[in-house]
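With this grant's support, we have settled on a layout for protein records. One resulting record is reproduced below.
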Amino acid sequence: MNYIAAAIAVLGGMACAYGESKIVSHALDGMARNPEMYSKLRSSMILGCALDETTSIYALLIAILCLFIG
């Protein structure tokens, strides 16, 4: 049962990877359309990626806890 819970937590990490790819692709699309906004879009993209990565790290932490503690 612990392995199933860890697998479900890993799915959360995969969803975060998809979300991060969408963040970066839309930011690059905006940079291509409006080069003057490069610095604002880059900082927003980095912030969005950082917030998305924290969700992935939490999913990894939960998966490790399910495997070794549960």
